[in-house]
Amino acid sequence: MVEPFSQSFLIEGRNFLNAGKASTEIKSILKQLGVNAAFIRRVAIAAYEAEMNVVMYARKAKMTFQVTPQVIKILVNDEGPGIPDIERAMREGYSTATPEMREMGFGAGMGLPNIKRNSDDFTIESEVGKGTQLGITINIS
Ligand SMILES: Nc1ncnc2c1ncn2[C@@H]1O[C@H](COP(=O)(O)OP(=O)(O)OP(=O)(O)O)[C@@H](O)[C@H]1O
Ligand SMILES: [Mg+2]
Predict the structure, then answer these.
(1) Per-residue confidence at 141, pLDDT binned at 50, 70, 90?
(2) What is the CATH number of the domain that holds 100?
(3) Is 112 in the pocket of ligand 1 (CB under 6 A)?
(4) Torsion angle, CA of 23/63/78/50, rounded to 10 degrees?
(5) Number of CB atoms found within 10 A of residue 12's CB
(6) In sequence order, what are the residues at sequence separation of 6 or more whose Cβ sits closer than 8 angstroms to the Cβ of residue 37?
(7) 63: closest CA among 54, 72, 71?
(8) Ligand 1 and 135: CB distance under 6 A
(9) Ligand 1 neighbourhood includes 110 CB (under 6 angstroms)
(10) What's the domain count of the chain?
(11) Which atom of ligand 1 approaches the CA of 53 most closely?
């Protein structure tokens, strides 16, 4: 049985130096908790894509990571421009990444679809001018 665990991370927009650190930490915690590798992989992909979207598009975010014996949850609450058309943002290939971001290998427009694919439950809410909230749930039992 996996022990309950909870931790929050602050993610800074535009900070490409620290980008990916929260999701790397989440991955290592899940390994220590003895979570099955296939679940860890799905969580790591979803967490990384959510974290990078904050770095690229938002000002900052609080990422909360919760583990119970049944589920792993990642909640991301950002302050940023929000997403005007969520349905369009969810489409594979849609991206507003800048040329600089594309040069770094981002901007395929696959992040949100990949988060959804790797989640058992996925919610996204956004308010233009305020920010975006993601809820990612992965069942582990
Ligand atoms: N947290 C966010 N705040 C504001 N806009 C966002 C946020 N996350 C995603 N978006 C918008 O949704 C679009 C699609 O996001 P998605 O992660 O699918 O692709 P991407 O980040 O552009 O490229 P990739 O993830 O493949 O590198 C983004 O280009 C951006 O316009
Ligand atoms: Mg992305």
Answers:
(1) confident
(2) 3.30.565.10
(3) yes
(4) 30
(5) 15
(6) none
(7) 54
(8) no
(9) yes
(10) 1
(11) 8
Return the pLDDT at 56.
Answer: 98
The per-residue pLDDT for 134 is 99
The reported pLDDT for the residue numbered 97 is 98
SS (H, E, C) the chain: CCCCEEEEEEEECCCCCCCCHHHHHHHHHHHHCCCCHHHHHHHHHHHHHHHHHHHHHCCEEEEEEEECCCEEEEEEEEECCCCCCHHHHCCCCCCCCCHHHHHCCCCCCCHHHHHHHHCCEEEEEEECCCEEEEEEEEECC
Distance CA 15, CA 11 (A): 8
* 63 pLDDT higher than 90: yes
60-85 mean pLDDT: 98
Give residue 71's domain range.
Answer: 5-139
pLDDT at position 105 over 90: yes
